[in-house]
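Everyone, study these two lines:
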Amino acid sequence: MNRTVVERKSDREFVATRTFDAPARIVFEAWRRPELFKQWWVPASADLSLLSCEMDVRTGGKYRLVFRHPAFDEPMAFFGTYTEVTPHERIVWTNEESDQGAVTTVTFEENAGRTQVTLRELYPTAAALDEALAGSAEALPQQFAQLDELLAGGS
């Protein structure tokens, strides 16, 4: 069974890794295509609904994800810009919804038909990282497990 490892690397950065039993081109598509991305991105245990998912995954493209949580009256939007996209290898994006947003880098390294995904998030402050890790440490393993299930289903 594949396991997700989430580690704090510095006072402003954390890294999550997991190996998937699929080639990099297939795993990359699950991050690039909105119809696939929305099947695995929201952790099943989270009390969130993904209302909209707009993604133009290319260098200079934009994304906007809108969520609803029952504790909040208004939907929450997360958005930013893809600053680097190398098909089947790397995606880098900004998180622009606040001045405490991270720069996220995801790499895809294939070996013998399996792909190691490494997600790095670099925050502007240690406090922003602390806040992010409070949710990410639980959410990312669930998200990556859901991605694993999607990939196993052959989508």
Q: What stands out?
A: Helices lie at 24-32, 34-40, 126-152.
